[in-house]
Amino acid sequence: MDNGQYVKPTVAIIITGMCFMIYFGVFKNIIELKWVTTLIKLKWDTTLTKLKLDTETFHSCTGLNCTNFFKSYFWKKTYNSLVFLGDSCMYRLFLTIMRKKGFCKIKKQVNRCSLISYLGKKRCSKWTKPSSTEGPYSYGLTHPFCTDCSGCNSALYNCGEIKIEYISVEYARDVEIQSTTSNTTQEAVSLYFNSNFTNVCVVNSGFHDMVLPALTDRLYVKNVHFYVQHLVQTCQNVIWISTTAVRGDKGFPQNNRRIQLWNRLIKEMLRNKFPKVGFMDFFSISNSTKAHRDNVHLTAAVYKLIANFFT
Q: Which UniProt keywords apply (predicted)?
């Protein structure tokens, strides 16, 4: 047989092998390239997601600029329940709003020592005293399961298509209400909202917190974080109202320097940790001796002004 007959098949085999190696190498590179591209895309998508979470819009307003805040904040949203949570200052705002409504019917109301039944909870077998950085501090400390605030009667009103409610919560963290399912008032309120569909929660704490001698600025922020963390789990929309200014009467633990600091710290904490929570700052429109009835409570005219932002 001619040697040339062996050369041609050999060359063909070599060329075929080289093509296969080149093809396999290119194919492998294509697979690796696609995989790397996929990883890059996944990493980019994750970065975009994180960026979106980190830069989520934070809604806030100050003073008279809050005129349309409530309506614009809930633009294209419908709600049938509005709850105010706070001390006697929030209670007076709530009463002012109810007087403006006029046609509402009361569904339930309780005094300072019946809040636990209002929330549908049962008392725990033994009430435990608070730590030095949580309430209660006065009446509630010597009367277990009662609130410090004497005239803050939690109440629910039916106003036609919307229900408006006030719940007495004076502190960012307190153990006034200790039930079989929760150790703090804040947890009990959150569980109450979970069983009673709630759209909007308007909340504040500050004046009573300043009475606690051991409560530092950092611990106050930590307590508010604890409070809001529970609220956002069961309340669809949360708006934090800044602590208003005080008149500056002597002998009281509250002062405007610290109030402004706390308001700033809470606003920043909410912006960073709970960007979906709204923030309304009423310090400036309350920072006048003429705006006050006493050291912490405002005049009826100022409460009417603030009430206009919610009606």
A: Membrane, Transmembrane, Transmembrane helix
What is the third-level CATH fold of 58-310?
Answer: Rossmann fold (3.40.50)
Q: Number of C-alpha atoms within 13 angstroms, CB side, residue 295?
A: 10
Q: How far apart are CA 268 and CA 110, in angstroms?
A: 35
Residue 183: name the closest of 125, 138, 258 by CA: 125
- d(CA 118, CA 286) in angstroms, rounded, equals 32
Q: What is the rounded CA–CA span in Å between residue 265 and residue 172?
A: 14
Map out the domains of the chain as residue ranges.
1-55, 58-310
Pairwise CA distance, residues 36 & 270, whole Å: 38
Quickly tell me which residue has 């509005």 as its tokens: 82
DSSP string for 4-69: HHHHHHHHHHHHHHHHHHHHHHHHHHHHHHHHHHHHHHHHHHHHHHHHHHHT----EEEGGGGTTH
